[in-house]
Amino acid sequence: MSELLEIKDLHVHFPVKKGLFQRPKQHVKALNGVDLTVREGETLGIVGESGCGKSTLARSIIGLQEPTSGEILFNGKDYTKADAKETREMRRDVQMIFQDPYTSLNPRMKIGDSIAAPLKAYNKTDGLESRVKELLELVGLDPDTHYHKLPHEFSGGQRQRIGIARALALEPKLIICDEPVSALDVSVQAQVINLLQDLQKKLGLTYVFIAHDLSVINHMADRVAVMYLGKVMEKSGAGSFQTKAQHPYSRALLSAVPVPDPVEERSRERIVLSSELPSPANPPSGCVFHTRCPLATDRCKTEVPILEEKNESGQEVACFYPIEEPASAGYAAR
Amino acid sequence: MMFQKKTNVLALTMLVIIVLATITAQWWLPVSPSEIDPEQRLSAPSVDHWFGTDDFGRDVFARTVVAAQVSLAVGVLVAVFATLIGTVLGLVSGYFRKVDFVLMRIIDGFLAFPALLLALALVAALGGSLVNIIIALTLAFFPVMARVVRSAVLQVKNESYVEAARTTGAGHGVVIGRYVLPNVLSPIIVQTTFIFAKAILAEAALSFLGVGVDPSTPTWGSMLQEAQIYLTLAPWYSIFPGLAIVITVLALNLLGDGLRDAFDPHNIKRKRKVKTKAA
Fold first, then answer.
1. Would the CB atoms of B168 and A105 count as touching at under 8 Å?
2. Could you say which of B165, B174, B183 has the minimum Cβ distance to residue A107?
């Protein structure tokens, strides 16, 4: 499999304006040196708690957010310095599914027109209506009754299907899913996830799948990247991640997932992180996780661990003290 | 939808009656608005003169009806021009942050003057004619519209459907026209009817202050001005043109609210549901 998307040392810093003359004094480091690769046809899951830079990453890939530095290579071409025309070309192949299905559709536009909008923007107007109906059918909506309805006449799950149809309209190669199911009911979540998987098989899509729900990631992803304070903490295959995650932060995330067996739930060991997430405007020195890490030593406060493969495990981890014994109970049991 | 609410129907009916009455006035009015009858000066309302007569013995009813021509013309044209200018400036200003700062400082400059005072100064400088009054009032009212539209645009711009439109390849023009504008229509409609009403009042005020249109053309404002010295002697002379202003402005405000509700997509749904039930 070839590499479709490559992100190299990506930084996105937002100036914090303070004082009378609005001089930027501080920078919120939303992304602070992110390296990722996405291979064609796979799903890369990105997890992390709120404020770790997941959405900023998504917005940077699709060109809604200009990076401070670094490279985003799509099909081998860097788009970080692209002009409007080049960005337009790139967006033909990269599309996005948004988090909130209630605000991602124009409330005054018929959904048929919403789905047709990307086709019109790229002058693919031949057989427009039949193409839109085909897309509606593809995402499991009745093309004839729904074409002329407005977004508020649909449920959250249906709207997300419309959002997916819109993202598929241009037959993109890569779709960025920015927490596509976190705003939906659990029962509807499963439907939408299954739809995304079916579409991937049918159309050979590549996903960057952002979520904070590990069970969703487990179901969807081929590989997982864990983010914390604008940095990637661990990269691993989805299967080995569940049992053999090496970073203490990954372990803490895994142990936070409840187990549906009450006996096991009571007996298992949970890692509860102390204190709050530090401000990304003023990240800790050394390893950014050291303030909350149960294994942190003095070395972690001064030295920055590099994301690298340890112990020939095929997993990359940014930690001086990776945990090697497999997770005993808990998430692994599922 | 709109016509299910009685106040909307009432407001629209009132406006239609006023417009039709004043446009066709010359064909049906029994007395000419400029016919002088010295023997009937300041006589009370009667069968011959429904609203009484003024200090020259002219029929107040005929004059009130004809005066609506100027008032409505000023109202409609000022509302249209101020809305067009204000909406374009507001959209540009709210959408492009770099233009925003410059445009808004200019608008602030306009807003620093009270609208009526600005119009008064402009009419005094340009001379009192219908065209000049419309220009002056448009300049007085467009900044408010620009501000209202801008703030609505700033809100809509951050909705993710605008970002979604950008990611699906829409240019700025398409985003503004198809995504932003339709979603800021409600405040624009309300503000337009508001400007319509305010322009009628402002024209009346300008005429009242004596800088309005040519004195031989009756307007509601100039009638009030002429009538004020006879307020205790002949109250009908001021009451009827005053009432005409009140009714017109009230009808416009009600209509504005009705239009805003009618354009709300959530109410369009309600209409459809009612239809299916009936079927």
1. no
2. B183
Q: A240 CA to chain B: closest CA distance, Å?
A: 34
Read off the pLDDT of residues A98-143 as tens digits, 9 standing for 90 and up: 999 889 999 989 999 999 999 999 988 888 999 999 999 999 999 8
How many other C-beta atoms are found inside a 10 Å radius of the C-beta of residue A254? 22
Nearest to A88 among B169, B174, B269 (CB): B169
Chosen for mutation from A56, A108, A152 (greatest number of chain B CBs closer than 10 Å) is A108
Indicate the domain borders of chain B.
2-278
Residue-wise pLDDT tens digits, B55-114: 888 888 889 998 899 889 999 999 999 999 999 999 999 999 889 999 999 999 988 988
Least Cα separation, residue B208 to chain A (angstroms): 44
Domain chopping of chain A, boundaries: 3-333
> Which of the four CATH numbers 3.30.1330.60, 1.10.3720.10, 3.90.1140.10, 1.20.1560.10 does domain B2-278 have?
1.10.3720.10
Q: Is CATH 3.40.50.300 the right assignment for the domain spanning A3-333?
A: yes
Comparing CB atoms, the residue among A92, A98, A108 nearest residue B164 is: A98
Q: What is the pLDDT of residues B128-158, one digit of tens each?
A: 788 999 999 999 999 999 999 999 999 999 8
Determine the distance in angstroms separating the CA of B7 from the nearest CA of chain A, rounded to an integer.
Answer: 26
Q: CA dist A171 to A94, A135, A142, A200, B17, Å?
A: 9, 10, 20, 12, 57
> What span, in angstroms and rounded, lies between the C-alpha atoms of B73 and A287?
72
The model's pTM is 0.82
